[in-house]
Amino acid sequence: MSTGLIIAIVLIALIALAVLLLLGRKGRQKRLDTRRDKAREIRREADVTRAQADRREAEAEERAARARREEAAAREHSTAAQGQAREARERHLDAARTDPDADEDEFAERYDREHGFDGNDSDGDHDDKPGLKQRLFGRGDDDDDGTVHEEVERERDRESGEVRRERVTNRRFED
Question: Residue 163: which residues within 8 A CB-CB, separation 6 or more?
Answer without folding.
Answer: 154, 155, 156, 157
